[in-house]
Design brief:
The complex is a heterodimer of chains A (about 260) and B (about 800). By secondary structure, chain A is an alpha+beta fold. Chain A has ten helices and twelve strands. Chain A has three domains: about 5-50, 2-Layer Sandwich (Uridine Diphospho-n-acetylenolpyruvylglucosamine Reductase, domain 2); about 55-165, Uridine Diphospho-n-acetylenolpyruvylglucosamine Reductase, domain 3; about 170-260, Enolase-like, domain 1, CATH 3.30.390. Classes of the chains: A alpha+beta (about 260), B alpha+beta (about 800). The interface of A and B includes residues 178, 242, 243 and 250 of A.
Chain lengths: ~260, ~800
Amino acid sequence: MYDFEFARPTTVSEAASALAAEGAQALGGGQTLIPSLKNRLASPSLLVILAGIDEMRGVDIDAGDSVVVGGATTHAEVASAAADSFPALAWLAGNIGDPAVRNRGTVGGSLANNDPSACYPAAALATGATIATNNRKISADDYFKGMFESALYEGELITKVRFPIPDAANYQKFEQPASRFALVGVFVARFGQEARVAVTGASENGAFRWAEAEAALSADFSSGAISDLSISADEMIRDLHGSSTYRAHLTKVLTARAVDAAS
Amino acid sequence: MPKDNGIGASSKRREDVRFLTGAGRYTDDLNIHGQAYVCFLRSDTAHAKLASVETDQASAMPGVLRVFTGADFEGVGGLPCGWQITDRNGEPMKEPAHPILAQGKVRHVGDPIAAVVAETAAQARDAAEAILVDYDEMPAVVDMKSALESGPLVHEDAGTNLCFDWGFVEDNREAVDKALAAAHHVTTLKLTNNRLVANPMEPRVAIGDYDAATDVSTLYTTSQNPHVIRLLMGAFVLSIPEHKLRVVSPDVGGGFGSKIYHYAEEAFCTFASRQLLRPVKWTASRSEAFISDAHGRDHVTKIELGLDAEGNFLAIRTETLANMGAYLSTFAPAVPTYLHGTLMAGNYKTPQIYVNVKAVFTNTVPVDAYRGAGRPEATFQLERVIDKAAREIGMDPIELRRKNFIEKDQFPYTTPVALQYDTGDYAATMDKLEEIADIAGFDARAAESKRNGKLRGLGVNCYIEACGIAPSNLVGQLGARAGLYESATVRVNATGSVTVMTGSHSHGQGHETTFPQVVSDMLGIAEDQINIVHGDTANTPMGMGTYGSRSIAVGGAALVRATEKIISKAKKIAAHLMESSADDIEFADGQFTVAGTDKSVAWGDVCLTAYVPHNYPLDELEPGLEETAFYDPANFTFPAGAYACEVEVDAETGKVDIVAFAAADDFGNVINPMIVDGQVHGGIAQGAGQALLEHAVYDETGQIISGSYMEYAMPRADDIPDLIVDHSCQTPCTHNPLGVKGCGEAGAIGSPPTIVNAVVDALRRGGYEVDHIDMPLTPYRVWEAISR
């Protein structure tokens, strides 16, 4: 890596001012950033370490209807704290990477990076999560702007993420064999009659909601309800591990499995 | 009762204490006072002329001692190739130069162009980024067929991308053609043996350390065979005689073949240390390993198997393209030829065989031996085509194999591809396999899987390998530029403990545990009284190192010979002490006795006498008790076995799970059953990696697109089920003193076809007309095959 300075703020406001500096970069769990630094693919002049900000850590079960996660909370903490209140979210968090990754990587880091194969974006979209920053609250539907792109401004920090707890939910992750990121991941959530289906790993535009499946499942929440649907392979990712057609196929298979598992 | 000491005991691996507690001493753990650091600037382009390499700016950067380019190596030898193949027309293979640093042209991504030596690793890397390379890009050729047909020339001076066109046995060719033309049935299969990266846990490291006071260069390197590196680098590259060159390979964290070869970085660090009068250290990053370690496999093959109406094999004909990469690595030409063509008979009495191999240069990393080396490629095609043939003629695949086995009473058996198998009992290993794998219960398990929505398949196959490499006179005739004996020095210390210096090299195999077991058994002293020294040319006899499952078969045999000499001399000393004749001395359990009397003297007394020779026959016997033996094997050894695998396939996603795996191996006698189990476990895991996960993939411009663990899938613990391994079928090798055959590569050789056979079986049981899927059988490939 190249040389850099680092700051270790203890409050959100200290972090925000540190991030105002030219060349500053926030460091969450570092699961993407540290390898990029080691490969000299990033050259920030200042790393602002978020792990020491207490107000950005922890998991609250709010009024029994939402899981509120601090932006600097690790996947392992979410997996443990949400196990009873929101098992699908806990399962998602508990199957990211390996134990080392889960004890470093954070919710805020994952959403800010918005890797097209990351798991959290699917949960955020499917639950209609609210992403709180040091400036504002952004609804998940307005947050994801494409591969590695989000609604965050330069220097803006994810302080908390509020995941509404669905009446039924399930996350199906089909792993890319090497990285074990989601080759395709589908999060299905049902709130009353309303079904939401979010897909990660598949699209060149990042995580997205599958509107046709949502409509069909809102009318009839069963895997049979989507058996006649198909999803276009246009703009799906194609690489060594699968064609766009394969990803489109997996999207449907995993959606049906998630519905069966959630029913 | 299992033994608790000596040959046959599952002694605990003594080296694991340091490995598992972080106390191992690997090459990168060595830091020599005053050392400088190297960063190689490697080509990011697969094929280009170097219009210019501008180093002025880099040379002026902080901490930089010197920037080297190809020009600094004019007059220095290139990397040598250790095996020369003679082609079908009697012509030697094309053997283009392999410079230490690029001489005007780069031929693969990763080809080193320049090297910066600086005070720190970061300074070296900073300066390497400041070197300006003007590439005059040329079209790259990656695909072997294109390379032969119309591709640009990787080496213009060779005039062709064909390294050699090899026929084996050339005299069999017409007979094979006739036999196939007349056969009742011919099964044909085209397949690819996927390109792999070895990925040992420890990346390569080299430290050159020149001592001007003594004019001795020391190279510390992550090698499987330090003596071979000393010979190749000293004699062929840097012109340093052996007495001025020491090569040390301390603890080495896995090799799998990729650390056999002499690499440019080793020669560079040794050379630069002499130029700069500083120790010079290089440690590969994992990314660098992907583009500089020799790759494995990468064969494209068409195999035809002719059968008569009863299912007897009549003839085999194969045509293979073997990727050599951009340069010939140390043993690359031997892999697709004498380690591959000679194995095409497998466990079967096929009377006519002809193997054709065209070795091809491409703009990719050099390819060389990787765990099994040629033998997995042979086994894979043979066992896959037999499975297909069984299906085509409507015979059970186990029955078809049994029908064609070389029978127990036919050994020694000479195959049509030049090997003489000394011993074996293939029906016995198949019987054992059917028992431990519960083949009879498969249908019930398949029905259960079906109820769970999965397709279950059973794959069975056999393998044979030629190990204990190798008789020197034979391999010399076949083109090897080295002998393949092994050595051992047994030094009995004055108070009776023993230090063994071996030319074998352990990089995971457990020699520090198993070699003492052999000596303990022979001398009747405890294993912990015996220590193994290896990996340093300064204190071990010249040996050829560890690969080709040769350590116990060849190195262990040298150890036995040296220990026999010790016993012979010790008997003379004991005879003197007991005023008897050496012929009357019996030695057992650490006691020398005069036959038929109660007179005895203990091992320790004899040893002490040898070094304190007050009462000693000095006029007829030298004092001391130390002996060296070199052992050159009379033949290869032929481990063989039968493997079974059960998979479940999710037809909706294409995902394959290995749900059961059983291995029945015949390794002859076994020194340490626990270590043999571990070798088989590791081999099967590696074979499963090849079958389901691993693939080094290049795009058409010569960029590797699976050049990190984000894209290159290594097997993990949860990819591998509990493995049932059995080596109770033992037909001891007839020509080495321990009756051992070697076990290091078996799992990696035997398992890939087992797994593919199982997947194809599962799909066909599910009604999918699939004959073959090329490895790795990723979910995507399996899904594509069944979606067609």
